[in-house]
Amino acid sequence: MHGYPRIDRLYDMHPWELIQDPHFYTKEYQQGHLDFLKSKHPYPIYMIEQYPEIPASVRYPIEEAKALAGRYLNFTSTFCYMAASAIMEGYDKWYVLGFDMDQGTEYEYQREEAFKWIGFARGYGVDIYIPETSGLFVKRLLYGYEGIPMIGRQLIEVHQKQYRRKQQEAADQMNKWLGILEERKRSVTARRLVEEATNKVIEYNLEVAANEGAAKALAFLIETSDLKEVYPNLDNPALKPAED
């Protein structure tokens, strides 16, 4: 459905009741997904069970995968199931493409387990390529040789939470004054107070932006305190190197 030049197998590890739910696949690129699954395919589709409605469906070997995972590995995303399959089938070269699991997305909590499976596979001797643009590509400075945190992450996080709290308080006040502004605009007797409400909205909007900027700056410091190499956004003209 995404125009890939070749598909060897697919994974859809969602429960059948969700796959059938018309409200589950809501994004534009997901439309028609169930009909797509039900059509004939020359490759297997690994799923929780083998479903008669889906001719290409194959039951995922969960028992073998759990035995491989042991006590210390879990399955928090489709990536983990795919990783277990690749190890069990003896693939010794992986290209991990299309998996970002970036911070601030619904997949953020899944990253930790993905890292564990990547490390586990490397212990099996698998050669793994991850592009530098991927959220799973994390490069850190060498502790002691290239950097030592001079301020603890916990302290930064305390300040970051304070700014986030102030940001939310300012947002609440801004929304409150937006409501007052709309009411005053509709009232003839309150027209002289419209300017006051407008100024309040502007004031709290600026406060929201200021606290958001502070929180983002502290997020940068948190990454630095973890010895993560942080690269500037070179798409931003202000951050591009000056030309000679």
Structure, explained:
The structure is a single chain. The protein starts with 9 loop residues before the first strand and ends in a 19-residue tail after the last helix. Strands 1-2-3 form a 3-stranded parallel sheet, covered by helices on one side. It has a two-stranded parallel ribbon with strand order 4-5. The chain has helices at residues 16-20, 33-38, 62-69, 78-88, 111-123, 153-186, 194-225, and strands at residues 10-12, 45-47, 57-59, 93-95, 127-129. The protein is mostly helical and 244 residues long. α6 packs antiparallel against α7.
Task: Quickly list its features.
3 domains, about 45% helix, 7 helices, two-stranded parallel ribbon, disordered C terminus
Q: What is the tally of beta strands?
A: 5
Shape: flat
Rg (CA only) = 25 Å
H and E string: EHHEEHHEHEHH
Q: Would you tell me the structural class of the helices and strands?
A: mainly alpha
Estimated share of beta-strand residues? 5-15%
Q: Estimate nothing, just give the exact number of structural domains.
A: 3
Helix amount, in percent? 40-55%
**Termini separation (Å)?**
46 Å
Strand order of the largest sheet: 1-2-3
Tell me the number of helical segments per DSSP (H or I, 4 or more residues long): 7
Poorly predicted runs: 231-244
The average pLDDT value, as a whole number, equals: 82
Biggest sheet character: 3 strands, parallel
